[in-house]
Design a protein that fits this description.
single chain, about 130 residues, alpha+beta, five-stranded antiparallel beta sheet, 5 strands, about 20% strand, globular
């Protein structure tokens, strides 16, 4: 079972990963600073789930977004707020080649399913209620 991490543990995980990244990697072919549909160039087999932001005691996580100053969802500067959508539905995944961390979730609509991915950056994580 993938362990749940709160905002404080997520910051620690992200900082540790940022300190230990192993140079250039094929996982960085497409910039993933903001949310993206998972690119076909990303070899999914090199990603390993290391944690989750989905609380097991929350049967209906909120769809409310945290967007201070009306920052756009897709923006590379958008804060990572683990208690808000879409972060509260994310897994934390590590590249097995270089150690970079990514957030991933599946966006589902009436007629589509879209796997989305975003690079995890410690400086963007906020712990807000």
């Amino acid at each position: 079972m993938t362990p749940y991490v709160d905002a404080a543990a997520l910051v620690e995980l992200a900082m540790r990963a940022e300190e230990n990244v192993n140079g250039p990697c094929s996982c960085t072919k497409t910039p993933l600073d903001g949310w993206q549909s998972q690119p076909l160039s990303l070899d999914e087999t090199q990603l390993v789930e290391v944690a989750t932001l989905m609380r097991s005691d929350d049967s209906e996580p909120t769809f409310s977004e945290y967007r201070p100053d009306n920052v756009q969802y897709w923006s590379a500067e958008a804060p990572i707020a683990p208690r808000y959508f879409p972060y509260n539905r994310c897994g934390v995944w590590a590249c097995s080649q270089c150690g970079r961390l990514y957030l991933r979730y599946t966006e589902g609509g009436g007629y589509f399913v879209d796997r989305r991915i975003r690079a995890l950056k410690a400086a963007l994580i906020v712990d807000v209620e």
